Amino acid sequence: AAEDIGGGDAVLAIPRSLWMTVDTALASPIGAHCGDEAGWIAVALQLLHERSIGDKSRWAAYVNALPAQLDAPLFWSAEQVAELTGTQLLDAAAGYDSYVRGTWSRLKESAFDANPEVFPSDAFDEASFLWAFGILRSRCQAPVDQGADIALVPGLDMANHGGLSSQTWTLNDGGVAAVFGGGGGGGSMLLRTEKGAKGLVAEGAEVIMNYGQRKIDNQLALDYGFTDAFASRPGYVLGPIAIPESDPNAFDKMDVLEVAGLKEAPSFVLRAFEDPEPELRVFMRLLNLKGEDSFLLEAIFRQEAWGLISEPVSQLNEQEACGTMINGCEEALRGYATRVEDDRKVAEDPSAGHRLRLAARVRMGEKQALADALGFFSGIEARLDSMEYYQDRRLRSLNLLDKDGNSTYDPFQDTMA
């Protein structure tokens, strides 16, 4: 900061006219060849075009400031990637690699080779395309990081991540807000400090932001090539999990998910040192709902089905729901090639190198999250005999069970009546 900044003040405002967007890509020399492409592809191709023309680009200063080397696993050597064996991070990085290389091959065949004057081979080679993808993944922040809204916002994307910060980008999208935000009529993107004393930034201090307050370590590592040493968030992403098509009640179960506001194949985050989110436990009951319990899937219960299974349905259903999670966690833990104590030694060894330490921290975090979830559902499984299930709750609501679980039905009284 060049001077003291008060809490809640705007640190920097970048007008939309300076952003690199899908619209600027379509208006550039490469625009005629990417009109039907995904937003990220259009912006990536424009970024490579601007880099290829050097100082002639209106974004030259920005492009020159971008890092030439990126630390995300997409850019690791084969030996370094091998350190991620068994992790979700490896699967995600491999998915990135296959997708981006496949996209480049398709573009090379459909556009690059036929238009060398627009796409010179030395500027639009595979390595350059991977770099452009990595730049977008590491520098595009919400709310302009997805779909047709994706954009590079020069200057604002230079702020480093701080896990203890709650500062994020704020969009002033035209109108009066944009005028008072300093963005003119086209809107602007702001980085504003936190309100109150916590947001005060002294002269000379670094202004930071949060790249994703709910992101876990392996998600930060995937796009940025780091985890936050001061605010570690070890975790494991479970899903997306789809109802099997072979399930005779699949349609009804997907309908229940839709009514509950969930996707057909939802994902859940297991966070180390925290209980799993309640929705995961409910979903596991739904996933394993069958037989006599399937009456809860009937149309008459559709609007309230998710609420009804938010508590244990039956002992068999709860046992199978726990078993699904327990078996899944155990299988995932068996997939890691290292022991936790080995991971810890590497993570704490400064001579191991940044990437090997990062891999070790990710392994430890994923294992911890899985172990905690395993312990949580094992604990529930151990209490199955003492839990109250749907039929008991229903009878109690009709005053047919007393507080001790005994029937209140009196056959003598019924006969006399």
Walk me through the structure.
This protein is mainly alpha-helical. It is built from 16 helices and nine strands. The protein has a three-stranded antiparallel β-sheet with strand order 1-6-5. A two-stranded antiparallel ribbon has the order 2-3. A two-stranded parallel sheet has the order 4-7. Helix 5 (88-112) runs parallel beside helix 8, helix 10 crosses helix 12 (315-334) and helix 12 (315-334) packs antiparallel against helix 14. It is globular and about 80 Å long.
In short:
The chain has 417 residues and is mostly helical. Helices cover 43% and strands 7% of the residues.
Task: From the structure above, extract its key features.
single chain; 417 residues; mainly alpha; 9 strands
Indicate the proportion of strand residues.
5-15%
Radius of gyration: 27 Å
**Secondary-structure-derived class:** mainly alpha
Strands, total number: 9
Calculate the mean pLDDT score and round it.
91
User: Main sheet, how many strands, which sense, barrel?
Assistant: 3 strands, antiparallel
Instruction: Estimate the global geometry from the Cα principal axes.
Output: globular
Q: What is the string of SSEs from the N terminus onward?
A: EEHHHHHHEEEHEEHEHEHHHHHHH
Helix content: 40-55%
Number of helices: 16
Distance between the termini: 84 Å
As laid out across the biggest beta sheet, the strand order is 1-6-5
Q: Spans with pLDDT under 50 lasting ≥5 residues? A: 175-185
